[in-house]
């Protein structure tokens, strides 16, 4: 069924409206500090299934659940004392914020959310509008990124509208996402921290906060059973994307767009950059927007410079590698 889709400014009235819509079993798009999410309350099986239908996402790819704080996280998971202490330490250091924990799930969590896995991905988002909706619903929200499965994640309300027009009633506009890349996902089984998806919380930050060894994420060939949805090909534009190393030259032709991290000296009208001075925080915030915009410009190919492979550059390169993997 097609709906007229509306972008709502995040006023008191619209926050109440989307919260009521969620409690009535609706699916709505909400801003987070990472990317926009497509949310439903975790207690409504039909609404959860509808998330998969709207996104065209396989049911084998589990969802992330969003809660207000550590106590709510404990209610949905089943933690031994050791891991509860470690999670508590990480929550104190990084949450609310862009960090998702994969933890043994409590029996009450529907298998439709976790793709029948024994673990649950759960995070405590920082965006004030998302938190206000959680306060009003008083029920945790499952929310994958609000894009069609496989396409670039949305970092503005307009991105969501472009991808999901007619499929959802409301998109709550909380402005452009501060971070612009999906959350860091970690598995903390056996007292170790293993990164399943790199993000704004970097391996260095996790190591420093806990003193533990952090196993860095390695690009997987296809899929890994521990992270069924972390497909190598993901987050892709429709236009063919190629990557090049910093310092290399990309081809200069009329039908090719070239994206640099910082503003290059020899820029022409087909040259773009993610941050005037190559700042990685700003580059990460802009990458999906710039790729989406250029995807609509009719270029034959897009060339994008890789980020330096440190800190946030790891997460940015991960998304670039996945986006380019569709075009061997
Ligand atoms: O920043 C974010 O995390 C955003 C915002 C909306 O919160 N959400 C997001 O969700 O990126 P999604 O569904 O697009 O990506 C979640 C990833 C998927 O690749 C999924 O396979 C993986 O997390 N995942 C979910 N549950 C898992 C589990 N139990 N074990 C391993 N991976 C899991
Ligand atoms: Mg996603």
Architecture overview:
The protein is α/β, with parallel strands linked by helices. The protein has two domains: 6-215, DHBP synthase (Alpha-Beta Complex); 240-324, Threonylcarbamoyl-AMP synthase, C-terminal domain (Rossmann fold, 3-Layer(aba) Sandwich). The chain has helices at residues 12-23, 45-55, 70-76, 81-94, 111-114, 128-137, 157-164, 203-210, 280-295, 312-325, and strands at residues 6-9, 28-30, 37-41, 64-66, 99-104, 119-123, 141-142, 170-173, 184-187, 193-197, 214-215, 240-244, 256-260, 271-273, 301-305. The strands form three sheets. It has a nine-stranded mixed sheet with strand order 2-3-7-4-6-5-9-10-11, with helices on both faces. A four-stranded parallel sheet has the order 12-15-13-14, covered by helices on one side. The protein has a two-stranded parallel sheet with strand order 1-8. Strand 10 (193-197), helix 8 and strand 11 (214-215) form a beta-alpha-beta unit. The longest helix has 16 residues, at 280-295. The radius of gyration is 19 Å and the shape is globular. It starts with 5 loop residues before the first strand and ends with a helix. The model has no long low-confidence stretch (mean pLDDT 93). Magnesium ion (MG) is lined by residues 144-145, 153.
Largest sheet: 9 strands, mixed
| CATH homology group of the largest domain | DHBP synthase
Strand sequence of the main sheet, in spatial order?
2-3-7-4-6-5-9-10-11
Percent helix range: 25-40%
Computed structural class:
alpha/beta
Rg to the nearest angstrom?
19 Å
Q: Just name the CATH architecture of the largest domain.
A: Alpha-Beta Complex
Heterogens: threonylcarbamoyladenylate, magnesium ion
CATH C-level of the largest domain? Alpha Beta
The end-to-end span amounts to: 36 Å
Mean pLDDT: 93
Low-confidence stretches: none
**Percentage of β-strand residues:** 15-25%
Order of helices and strands: EHEEHEHHEHEHEHEEEHEEEEHEH
